[in-house]
Structure formats: structure tokens, C-alpha cells
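The instructor's notes for this session suggest beginning with a concrete chain rather than abstract definitions. Hand out the sequence below and ask the class to guess, before any prediction is shown, which regions might be ordered.
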Amino acid sequence: MRYFKLESSSGSSFDITNEGILFHDISGLGFEEDNDFRRVGPVWKLNSTAYSQSKPSGKILFTEYGDGTPYEKYDMFKRFIVQSPLTLIYYPNGLGTKPYMKKVRVSKLSKTELTNYGALDCDVEFTSYSPWYELVFAENKIDDVDENVHWIWDVGNRWRDEDDGVTGIPRYRFGGESRNTVSINCETNAKGLIKLLIDGPALNPAWSHYVNGVLVSTGGFSASSTISLIAGEQLVVDNTDASFLMNIYNASIGEQRNVYSLRDFDKKCFFNLEAGNNVFVITSQDGVPVHFAIEGYIHHATV
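After discussion, reveal the predicted structure:
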């Protein structure tokens, strides 16, 4: 059975698929498209197209099953949904299967009298901040790589080992995995947003994005800047929340530094997932392997 949960901006969750609180009679999970056409003789030409802001809706049934009365459950739900923005989490094939998510806020919640069965059955509507997305996460490994299979990125979209141990001539091959790379496969054509997390130590870190073996974007800091991440610090490059952040966080001392103004403005710096195999390469100016992770949002028109 399909399953729904809500997650608040603070990370707490609220189950809305159980005997006590049930989201049902659901509509609006698909998509609508706004199209603008211009007539050209006997045919029409598409001028522009855009997805409409979807509004999943249905009813929330608050019953006597479990702890609390229907009115108490309604009050719990009412207090939870003010923690916007919320994430609506949808498991089409049941809890424990692949989830899809959508940023929402509750734009409508009615309140009824108790039904003949002693329950509250209330209309609810969610207004979307985002399309449906699949959250993917990938990180590189720098501590458990066998030196005999340490592949590094080279010009010409090829992988090479540093030395074949016999002739001293690098051998080239496709494939492999490097300490400085992660890869994410994206099966949709919609561009997905990315949060890049780079852990210290690192000196003037730089990053590159390849799609199906072709370099599409690079990022880093200006030549006049010196960005030195110490152990315990993390650089976050984030375009996932309708804003562009480039901050360094030090959790141990509770410090946050905004380094956006130090970026190389001749480079894109903020990346998007594209259809195909996305490979991300992070390097440090001192040549030391860098631990980093990519949090990606693979967008879907409907799920």
C-alpha cells in the first residue's frame, strides 16, 4: 500500500498513513503544464511551457485508534504543520521502498464535526515549493583505496594509473574510480539541484563536473583568494533552496563564514545534475586527497 509521511523543517516526522491518522482520497500527485501557443497559418507554434505549481490534496481522517482522541490528534497535526517548509514523503510501493519527496506547506486544513463513526474527516491541501524529487547521496572514500587500483582523472576524458610499475608510462583506460571523484546516474532530463559538501583539510579546493565523460562545469575560488579548510571544517556549496550559498562551517566552535564573494566568478561554481552519468572531481591545491559528498535532487514531473 502506498504510504505518506511529513517531515518538518527541523527534521521531525509525522506519520499520516496509519489507523489513527490517515491521508486518503488523494489527488494532485501528477502534474499540469502551462503552455503558450501562437497560431502560424493552419498550425500552432509553442512559445513557452512551464510546469504549474501543483497542489496535492485529499482528506485527513483522525480516528480513535491509538493514543489520543480525534480532536487531540487534530491538534497534534495542526501544531506540526506550522514548521514550514514541510517535506511530503511518498512511498508509491509501500514503506521501505524508494521514496519520492516534495517541498510543501499546508495551504488548507478544514475542521469538521465528529462523524457517526467518531472520527474527524478534514479536507487538506498542500501547495508545492518543488517538483517531486528523489534524494541521492554519494561520497568518495580516501582511506580504504587500494593503491594498485588508484585511478585519477586525466585530460581527454580518460582514467590513468599513476605508474604501471614497469615502464613508468601511464596506462589509460575508461572507467575506474578515483579518491577525488564520485558519480551519480540521473535517468531524467530535468536538471536536478546539488549540494556539495567538502571536508577539511583542503587548500583552495576546486571542483569539476563531467556528464557522460564531457566536462560541462568547473568551480572554485579566485586566484587572489586563499581558502584553507582545517580538519573539522566543511565547505558547503548549495543551490538546492532557491538560493546560492557558499559557506564554511566549523561545528566544534559554532562558526560560519560566508565565502561566496571569494568564488571565481568566471566559473559556474553551482552545478546541476543532468541526464546520464554525472562525475564530480574535487581537488586540493596541495594535492592531498579530499573527502567530499554530493547530495543531489533528481526531479520528476510525476511519480
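Then share the key points. The longest strand covers residues 100-109. Residues 24 and 59 are 5 Å apart (CA to CA).
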